Structure formats: C-alpha cells, structure tokens
Amino acid sequence: GIQVEQSPPDLILQEGANSTLRCNFSDSVNNLQWFHQNPWGQLINLFYIPSGTKQNGRLSATTVATERYSLLYISSSQTTDSGVYFCAVEWMNTGFQKLVFGTGTRLLVSP
Amino acid sequence: NAGVMQNPRHLVRRRGQEARLRCSPMKGHSHVYWYRQLPEEGLKFMVYLQKENIIDESGMPKERFSAEFPKEGPSILRIQQVVRGDSAAYFCASSPSGALNEKLFFGSGTQLSVL
Q: Which is the most buried residue in A12, A82, A102, B75, by most CB within 10 A?
C-alpha cells in the first residue's frame, strides 16, 4: 500500500516563528488533505489540495503531485496552532474518500 | 449550522460489554465514514456508508464490529464483546455527496476506554 510520511515528527516553536511541515507519499494520489488535531482531539480540515497552492490566513499549502510531496506553511505561529498536523491521501481509485493518514507532526508553540 | 456530532464524547466499558457509538452527519450530508485512531498513531479507515447502505467496510475487523446508517437517525458503530485492544478514539466524518474533491468534516470523536 501507499506510504505517507511526515516530517518532522515533533516541532517546538516560539510564538511568532514560521514553520514548514512536509508530507511525502509513495504513489500517485487523487486527493490530499491537511488536518489539524487540537489538544482536545478535534480534527479540523485545513486544506483540500491535490495539487497547486492554497492560502488561508496564516496558513498555506503547496502540493507538487509529480514529485509526490506536499508542504504546509505556518507563519507567525500562535499558541493555538499547537496540536498534531496530519496529511491524508486517497490513492486507490476506489471512487470515494478512503483516506490514508500520515504519521503526523506534533507541534508545540510556546508563548 | 452544527457540524458532525458524535456521542458520547467518552465511553468506558468493561471487557465483554457492548459499545455503541453514534454519529450525526452535518446537515445535508448523506455520506458517513468511520475512522479509528490508536494512541500516538494516525487515523485508519474503517467503513464508508450512505443512507441504508454499507459501501465499503474493508477496514472493519471481521468479528464483533458492525456499522449502520439508517434512513432516519444517526450512524451507529457497534462493537460487541469489547477487548482492551479496542481502546481508541473513533472518529466519524461526513461529506455532501461522497465526491473525491470534497473536504471531509470530522466530528470530535468518541474516546473508548476498555477496562
């Protein structure tokens, strides 16, 4: 099956710093999404981005499908950005969103 | 405009008991997905349902686990005769039409603890 690896596994930032999270996948994908799981366990969908670049406030994401990776940029980080960031891909051509999740990047933003 | 609602938020069961997890999708969404998250791991797909139909249950354990999404009411994930290894967070997600280019919206999850 497809392998979805994220790096770094853990990241500690000072409030206000910028960061880049990476997601590598081992096969062509039809669908890629980024999620934020906050410290209370809630999953928030940040981006649907199978290719190209999108921006939403302080967050932006870029997927280079031909090179099988995606990047999530967080600028001017805030303590509320803490949590685990997952990328998830759909690759099996099942016709529906059977997502395979990556291993996650655990982010801690300190004041 | 409520999101995906899951209840209970936390569920404690003793080994051998049954666990019933409920999921009400977002208004207007008729496609429901269940995922399981073991401690310190990412989510893993379990089952995909539309109203009254199981579309894909390839991620469900063959025994003790079942899911339904009736015409009326929430989707139910049922785990019979729970064991300690079933302890995990169970997440439900929904989408409007199941299309590949839609975002999935997740509920807050049910944390199942088996004593």
A: A102
Q: Do B100 and A48 touch (CB under 8 A)?
A: no
Distance from CA of A49 to the nearest CA of B (A): 9
Using an 8 Å Cβ cutoff, are B44 and B36 in contact? yes
For residue B73 the two structure tokens come to 């009411």
The closest of B27, B37, B66 to B49, measured between CA atoms, is B66
A28/B contact by beta carbon, under 8 A = no
CA-based nearest residue in chain A for residue B38: A103
Model confidence over B73-85: pLDDT tens digits?
999 999 999 999 9
For the segment A8-15, the average pLDDT, to the nearest whole number, is 96
Q: Provide the percentage of residues in chain A whose pLDDT is more than 70.
A: 98
Question: Under 8 Å CB-to-CB from A66, ≥6 apart: which residues?
Answer: none
> Alpha-carbon distance A23 to A104, whole Å?
9
Query: Are B104 and B4 in contact, with CB atoms under 8 Å apart?
Result: no
B33 chain-A contacts, CB cut-off 8 A = 97
Residue A33 has its nearest CB partner, among B56, B98, B103, at B103
b/e per residue B1-19 (b: at least 16 CB within 10 A): eebbebeeeebebeeeeeb
| Residue B1 pLDDT greater than 70, yes or no | no
Q: What is the DSSP letter of A51?
A: S
**Residue closest to A84 by CA, chosen among A49, A45, A39, A47:** A39
